[in-house]
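Protocol step 4 of 5: obtain the predicted structure for the target chain.
Materials: sequence only (see below). No template structures provided, no constraints applied. The aim of this step is simply to have a reference model before the mutagenesis design in step 5. Sequence pasted as it appears in the construct record:
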Amino acid sequence: MARSKAGCIGTGVMGSALMESVAAVAGADQVLVFDTDTGKADAFARKTGCRVAKSSREIAETCDFVFLAVKPNYLGDVLSGIAPALAPATILVSMAAGVTRDTIRTFAGESARIIRIMPNTPASVATGMIALAPDTSISAGEIDELRRLLGSAGLTEITDEKNMDAITAVSGSGPAYGFLFIEALSDAGVRMGLSRDQSIRFAAQTLKGAAEMVLKTGTHPAMLKDAVCSPGGTTIAAVEALEAHGFRSAVISAALAAWERSMELGKSKN
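Step 4 output (structure tokens):
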């Protein structure tokens, strides 16, 4: 059976977004997908030209990179099912929040080669942030190849596995915080007389622009904020109101709650 560059078990939002990136880089014929919901897998194949596997085991047998895009509570069963079919060179790419490489090995075998990743949903519009935490068996060339395959989904960055729970809280869950902020800011616009559609566009583009300034200038966000706050002006009045209502404290508390939950998910698998 001919080998493929990558296969994905699960065709939800994240699995589909990452496989679209792989297909864009390596070609749709190099991507194999499987989902217990065959309708989802078939719809993805029709959209992208990728191929549908008959089973998760077929992906394990034929793909160099096996992406695991299933919920943490299903991961053990999936791994136990494909473990006998894994070739020595196959690399498992797990995006299950909180589930460590050591836990994955209890199901896939001690010799399993693993890269944990934490993507986020903006990968579906090519602006994602993807953390990669490879084990020591993965070569620099293999890491580079995975980064190349994921390149059209957004930015990639190598990290230690110990950081993955924090990255899950800041980046994996982070888009939800941004969506809440955009929704709240657009509500304010509507309250002041803007149409809903216009207010959402202004709020979303403004947040997008602020993020681009941080990334492209490399300037600390506090300095960029200060540059907008003219003495006695509108922005400093708004910042004062945010501080009075505990804005920063609320954001920190939210991220800490996600961090703690990620660690809980990992412990439940050990």
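Step 4 remarks: The chain is about 55% helix and 15% strand. The beta strands are 4-9, 31-34, 51-52, 63-68, 91-94, 113-118, 128-134, 154-158.
Proceed to step 5.
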